[in-house]
Structures are given as C-alpha cells and as structure tokens.
Amino acid sequence: MLAIIGGSGLTQLANLNVIRREVMRTPYGEPSGALTFGQLCEHPVVFLARHGYGHTIPPHRVNYQANLWALREAKADAIISVASVGGIRDDLGPGVLVVPDQIIDYTWGRKSTFHESSEQPVVHIDFTRPYDEVVRQRILAAAVAAGQPVVNGGVYAATQGPRLETAAEINRLERDGADVVGMTGMPEAALARELGIPYAAINVVANFAAGRGNSAAQICFGSIDVVLREAMGRVREVLEHICEGPAK
Ligand code: HPA
Q1: CB 200 within 8 A of CB 139
Q2: Which of 98, 130, 131, 216 could form a disulfide with 103 if both were Cys (CB 3.0 to 4.6 A apart)?
Q3: Which atom of ligand 1 is the closest one to the Cα of 183?
C-alpha cells in the first residue's frame, strides 16, 4: 500500500475517499496523528499529516521514528513525502515542484536511527542514494501524466528549524551544493531506509530562501500560504496519477 506523508499545506487529501482512521501506538511513542486509510482513484492509500492534523508539531518535535514505524505496521510498501521548501537556486522560485535526488543533513539532536540499543551489533545503512529511484520515477511519470511540470533532481538541505535560515547560512548551503532547503526531510528518509521502505519526496517551493529573489530583505509569510494553497492543488493532481495503473 502506498503511504503519503503530508507536510505544511497538505494536512489532508481532499480527493482521498476515507475508509477508516486508526490511532497507532509504537515502541517509539505516538505518531503525529491517526493514520487515515482510504482510496485514491480506487487504490489503497494511507495518509499521515507530519505536523499533526491541526499543524501543531514543529519540525524538530515530529516523532519521525513513530511515524515511520506506524507506516510499516500499516504495511506501507512505498512512501511519498510531500514537504515545502525554500528555493536556493534562481530557477527554483515559489510554486515550483521538485523531486530531489540527494540530501545534505544539517539537523541535530533528533532521534535519527532505530538502531540505538547498545546490546545489538552496530548497523550501518547504505545511503549513497537517499531516495528510492523507482518511487522517484513513479512520481515523475505521474507528473507527466498529470501534465504538471516538475524539476527532476536537486539537493535537499535539511535544517533544524524551526527558525528560517540567515542569508549567510543559505550562501553556505549553496556552496555545499544544496538547491532547496527544508526542515523535515531528515531523519525521515534515513529511517525509511532503515526499515527497508522505498521512499521519495515531492518538494513544493513555498518561498525563495533567505536572501534570495523576493526574500532578499525578508521572507513574507503571507505569500507562503497563498503559494502553498495553489501548489498543493497541483501536488494532489500528481498524486492522483501515481495511483493510476495496476492496483497493489
Ligand atoms: N527554509 C527552511 N524550510 C523551509 C523554507 C525555508 O526557506 N520554506 C519552507 N520550508
């Protein structure tokens, strides 16, 4: 079953035909909210709002371990993460959709592994390609089918938040090779890999990152809401087309 983790601007899927909601408990605590099981174009889908259904959980307080564990318990065999980002590159302005292919992790102090026990042998996962290429291609094909332009590839920088970055920090991220910046991509992607669940992301550029484009002097929160509302409509269309094809 396909799992969708929705971020800011996507706390529910309007086109999801809801069958049931389930509050899950995990050895890692409670997920951000109940899992919503439903059908998208007659295909089974499970949806989880990363920040809670009332959008009350900030990026550094999300229980990523519980979220991923609950999705595994729900038999998710692929995860699509939807997350808003700031655009660092000139061509990645507000409203652009990006399917990233790399990550740089600047977060700290988050529970970023399921392998914490000192009684178990040390476990390392391969993370050379942090996103699953099959899921990435499914997203790209769905975007083509939906007639929605998306940028294929990009380096996602995961920052700690919840504050936005300084202009100098964004300059540094750019020197490091980052194209977009967000606060929730890690450890989510790594935990999915640890559980062996193929995972990829759709990033929605909500604003130019600090010091860039129309965020040169400051970031305007009013326009972020407007951008996200419009762009998430396009994300929903892409998601509908992902669910086309043989049911799983
Ligand atoms: N920085 C970090 N995370 C974000 C941004 C940003 O500019 N916009 C949306 N999420």
Answers
A1: yes
A2: 130
A3: 3
